[in-house]
Amino acid sequence: MPTIRALSALEILDSRGRPTVKAYCELEGGARATASVPSGASTGRAEAYELRDNDPARYGGLGCRRAVANVKTEIAEALTGRTFTDQRELDAALAALDGTANKSRLGANALLAVSIAFARAHAAELELPLYRHFADLVGRPLRTLPRLTINLFSGGKHAGGQVAIQDVLIVPVAARTVDEGLAAAYAVYQAAVGLSAERYHARALTADEGGLAPPFEGVEAMLETAVAAIERGGLAPGRDIALAVDVASSHFYRAGRYELDGAELSAEQMIARIAQWVARYPIISVEDGLAEDDWAHWPTLRDALTEDALTLGDDLLCTNPERIERAVAARAADALLLKVNQIGTLSEAARSYALARDAGWRVTVSARSGETEDHWLADLAVGWGGDQIKVGSITRSERLAKYNRLLEIEHETGLPVTTWPND
Q: Is the pLDDT of residue 331 over 60?
């Protein structure tokens, strides 16, 4: 059983140049580990609370010195010298120490950094690869690697809102290895760069997660250009490469209406519009097609998509067990976008994961718009058997760190990519 010898933390910068938290954990047996946590731009209201300094004179108030200090003082003082039987006991101690429902006293960024650093140190002490340790935490065998979903075009909060929806992603459904999937994504991405220059005179400048962001006149232009990029890349839309869409509808929802492409749509009209996209384009996953609190209409959206595409909840669910239970009961979704920092500790995220699996849902393990070069997310997606992994594009080092880690795991294990959605 691991005993904590020392805990510390440091304020570092994420991929947007904003502060985040890096934690250090040392166990009595000598194992040491670090973990850096991400932060989101497109955040749901039910997410766990990132503690910021709110000092406008420093990083516009986004500094994380308070969260770092909480790790170095109160958390370290409470946990140093304690022996924990497992990850769940450690995470329960963190949650009890914070004492709030949303981790607002000590900060979810502080708690999650310690949670993951402890898991990594424990894996090192057990001489296990991190992905195998993560698998043991949820009691599942290692069978497959997750299917890649890779940002191609971005809008919404990731790209200045030139298009209302947040992301169009490519899914290499014909690829049977991570290596094949990345090679296919490269071909499509380079084709998209060329099309962006030809059609929009746009240089290959990228959004928060590395997606291209030409000035599309609307959503359908964005989707049509994605299909054209697949074809120019020498691949077949739907057969070789499918699409996934992150609509992020909460960000253009006003007073019960959806403000999209110059029109104000009712929920019923928004559902019909999304169904038209799925019918016209090779879309197999729709994330946050409706606003996070539009609970009354999510079951209708799921019914409209269930034969053709996943109804994937992000802001709707916030990796929060209570919201997932509500969505399962209402038949409001059939897939979870799992973001560990939305809930605050590994064990709570594992409960959310279990609830989704028990309901027969698919699970996409996701990074955030503000990421670091730490690659623990790749190990988590493998260990927890994610059907998909959503990291970002293939052009930024904080994204490539995760893809490269997947390549390493593939090399070590020989595991195949999941056959979803073709099974």
A: yes
Q: Is the pLDDT of residue 366 over 50?
A: yes
Q: What is the pTM of this model?
A: 0.95
Maximum distance among all alpha carbons in the chain? 62
Counting other chains too, the contacts that 275-280 makes at CB distance below 8 Å and 24 or more residues apart are 275/304, 275/305, 277/219, 277/220, 277/223, 277/245, 278/305, 278/308, 278/309, 279/308, 280/223
Half-sphere exposure of 245 (CA within 13 A, CB side): 28
The DSSP code for 415 is P
**With bands split at pLDDT 50, 70 and 90, how would you rate the model's confidence at 422?**
very low
Query: Where, residue-wise, is CATH 3.30.390.10 in the chain?
Result: 4-127
At residue 415, what are phi and psi to the nearest 5 degrees? Answer: -70, 145
Give 155-201 pLDDT, tens digit per residue.
876 556 678 899 999 999 999 999 999 999 999 999 999 999 999 98
What is the model's pLDDT at position 43?
A: 62
Q: Which of 50, 209, 287, 371 is catalytic?
A: 209
For residues 305-315, one letter each, b for 16 or more C-beta atoms within 10 angstroms of the residue's C-beta and e for the rest, the string is: beeebbbbbbb
Q: Is the dihedral of CA 203, 401, 389, 290 positive or negative?
A: negative
Fold of 138-413: TIM Barrel (3.20.20)
Known catalytic residue at 339 = yes
390 is catalytic: no
Write down the H helix ranges in 146-297. Answer: 178-200, 219-232, 267-280
Active site residue: 47, 50, 125, 339, which one? 339
Residue ranges, comma separated, of all CATH 3.20.20.120 domains in the chain are 138-413
Tokens of 10: 């440091």
CB atoms within 10 A of CB 240: 20
CATH topology assigned to domain 4-127: Enolase-like; domain 1 (3.30.390)
